[in-house]
Design brief:
Length: 471
């Protein structure tokens, strides 16, 4: 029997296959869709800590740090776009595929460790942030009920985050039983809309506070040294602030995945470079506005989180409630979006290791639609419990966000893109380009170390004064 091939006949008469060169359905992504994906990937809950980060660094170093991290991220992301195809021209469908192709096995294992550690850290961060947002809703309603001005901490308006962390964990235990990643694509869309909504509300409230003429203290050198902030405290908080800024711009982990959605013609790397420039410039402008406007609104007293800290916004209470509700909806979906790859990795590895084990491989259909598996139930429930326990022990937004940014920024945003590009471009050792790229990588490595040290120190300090089981 003669084999027929599906083709599309265009107006000019040229035939165009329904499939790309790798056998997958033809990609339809454009400059606009790629730019939108990048903006969505960058803008998230990290925007809420930027005013605090600028306050720690000061009115000069703070904006400068935002600019430097933006430029570095743009540069290394552009380098990464050239690594989408291997030297032979084949496609790499994911970040880890690109590392495996260009750098080999040992570095691939290092990449996997960094990537999955980041995903686990993000899940824990989402546990903390969601609980803080739910507590902020309760607190703002309490302030409004008692006609309270927001100065100080009355006992009746100091909710505990413990209950909210446990409730979030219960919700995630249920959602985690959704078997496949493509089943939760709607969550990603909803999460993106929510992230823009609460970020814009935070920016608008900061601008309104400035317009209202509220007096604030600002400083070129950041939060001043005093009784509550020793020189050592200031140094460590400055390092932690760098981590908060770093994670705000960390999106390199999905550059290859976004590029894999683009049409093959014109060449994907040219379009992706343009999309990367547009996406990072728009996000950087938005982040810089949030960081600087939030700092100008609060000065050196900028809260760790504009929408959840009790020294942040508390009126109009209904708008604060809505913004925090958006954060909750966003993070419920984001937890699943960033956790499903971890689930998939462990489950696929377990099936390869124990293919005859019925506990791991047997699937049962319940109620006619739910795919049930005993191993999936036990493993995913255990994972959620682990993230909840860590969230109970370390419910400190800025210190944890700073640590996560420090851990993920250098290897995923700097080291691997630079190493892959040098391998792809066949840059000679000790050439001018090689020295410049290695110097940039080394500089960012030391910044990441300082940020990690500052965040760990802050976490330890907070833990000594925190009882996770207090009412």
């Amino acid at each position: 029997m003669e084999r027929t091939t599906s083709v599309v006949v265009q107006e000019g008469g040229a035939e165009d296959s329904l499939f790309d060169d790798d056998g997958r359905i033809k990609r339809t992504g454009t400059l606009i869709t790629a730019s939108a994906h990048i903006i969505t990937a960058i803008i998230g809950s990290g925007v809420l800590s930027l005013a605090w980060a600028v306050a720690q660094l000061g009115s000069v170093a703070g904006p400068a740090a935002l600019l430097v991290f933006s430029v570095i991220t743009l540069y290394t992301s552009i380098l990464l776009t050239d690594c989408y195809r291997s030297p032979e021209g084949t496609r790499n469908h994911s970040y880890m595929d690109a590392v495996r192709t260009h750098l080999g096995g040992i570095q691939f294992m290092f990449c996997a460790l960094a990537q999955y550690a980041t995903l686990i850290g993000l899940a824990i961060g989402y546990v903390i942030t969601t609980a803080l947002s739910l507590g902020a809703i309760e607190r703002s309603n309490c302030y409004h009920k008692h006609a309270y001005g927001g100065h100080g901490r009355p006992p009746e308006c100091s909710p505990s985050t413990r209950t909210y962390i446990l409730e979030f964990g219960a919700v995630q235990m249920i959602l985690s039983q959704i078997p496949k990643f493509h089943n939760i694509s709607f969550m990603s869309v909803i999460a993106a809309v929510m992230s823009f909504t609460y970020a814009i509300i935070g920016l608008a409230l900061s601008a309104a506070r400035i317009a209202g003429g509220t007096p604030v203290r600002t400083s070129v050198t950041g939060v001043p040294i005093g009784n509550d902030n020793s020189a050592v405290d200031k140094m460590w908080k400055t390092f932690s602030a760098l981590g908060n800024i770093a994670i705000a711009f960390a999106f390199s982990i999905v550059v290859i995945e976004i590029q894999d959605t683009l049409k093959a013609s014109p060449r994907e790397n040219r379009v992706m470079k343009q999309a990367t420039f547009v996406g990072i410039m728009v996000s950087s402008l938005f982040y810089t506005l949030c960081g600087i406007v939030g700092y100008v609104a609060f000065g050196v007293d900028a809260p760790g989180n504009l929408l959840t800290d009790d020294h942040g916004f508390y009126e109009p209470y209904w708008l604060i409630d809505f913004a925090n509700a958006c954060i909750v909806v966003h993070l419920i979906g984001a937890y699943q979006v960033f956790t499903q790859p971890v689930f998939a990795f462990v489950e696929s590895w377990s099936r390869r290791m124990w293919p005859e084990n019925r506990l791991i491989t047997a699937e049962f259909i319940i109620l006619g639609f739910w795919e049930f598996n005993f191993f999936r139930l036990l493993w995913r429930t255990g994972y959620v419990i682990f993230t909840v326990i860590v969230g109970l022990i370390f419910p400190f937004f800025n210190a944890f966000v700073g640590l996560l940014g420090a851990i993920s920024f250098w290897p995923l945003t700097i080291y691997f893109p630079i190493q892959m590009y040098m391998k792809q471009a066949k840059i000679r050792r000790f050439s001018c380009a090689w020295i410049c790229l290695q110097t940039l990588s080394l500089f960012c490595f030391f910044v990441s170390l300082l940020a990690a040290a500052g965040s760990v120190r802050n976490l330890i300090k907070y833990v000594f004064h925190y009882n996770p089981f207090a009412p």
